[in-house]
Amino acid sequence: MWDTLLQILREQWGWTLLRGAAMTLCIAFLGMALGVLIGIVGAQLKNRGPVLARWAISLYTTVVRSTPELLIIYLLFFGSLDAASALSGWFGAGAGSGGIAWHAAAVGVVAIGLISGSYSVEVFRGALNAIPLGHIEAAHAIGMSPFTCLRRVILPQMVWYALPGSNNVWQTAIKDTALVSLVGLVEIMRAAQLGAANTREPLILYGLGALLFFMIALISQAAFSMAERHFGRGLRVAV
């Protein structure tokens, strides 16, 4: 078994798995960034927005969280293909040319962004609600401008409160990238699948894929713990 493992690593599959890991991190990071943006805006709207905006955010979070992740990916992928075919037909390129169809990576980023955003809304909403109102009132009382209050009082505490929940959302986003392999994205899961089919060693290839996911999760956990300690300096006594 060890000889087979070394042979697989010496061949192209070791690099293929590493490239898949890089793609996994890229898709998860970009999707998470989109999700954080959705989460912050959605939390503000759900807390202080007009009734219609609060209703829209609640509908979005309910629909996305109740829909299987794979179904969201399929809807975006095949929906984009149909839209591209329709546009191509309108411009005389012929239906089905797919010249402007979304790439699987773009679909993955948008899908993971929508999924992680639906959870991040509640994460950031809870973080905002956890900030003591007295801290904000005290900042205004000493003459802080709204922007200064946001930068020096609200954001540091909001980030600290949101980090544990965001860690869970990030770990889920990492695992959800495996689903994007079903529309052609070569990330860890797809790379392991291709390697298993070519080498006829599924246990070794999928085991290496699992090891890569575990290492990413371990490093991510350490990074979030460091971030919590950094943003928590001076806050634990105050809150």
Written overview of the protein:
The structure is a single chain. The protein contains 9 helices and no strands. By secondary structure, it is an all-alpha fold. The protein has one domain: MetI-like fold, CATH 1.10.3720. Helix 7 runs antiparallel to helix 9. It is flat, with a radius of gyration of 22 Å. The N and C termini lie far apart (55 Å). About 4% of the residues have low confidence. This is ABC transporter permease subunit. Its main location: membrane. It is a multi-pass membrane protein.
CA-based gyration radius: 22 Å
Number of domains: 1
- The percent of residues in helical segments reads over 70%
Question: What is the CATH T-level topology?
Answer: MetI-like fold
InterPro entries: AA_ABC_transptr_permease_3TM, ABC_transp_permease_HisMQ, MetI-like, MetI-like_sf
Keywords: Cell inner membrane, Cell membrane, Membrane, Transmembrane, Transmembrane helix, Transport
Subcellular location: Cell inner membrane; Cell membrane
Main location: membrane
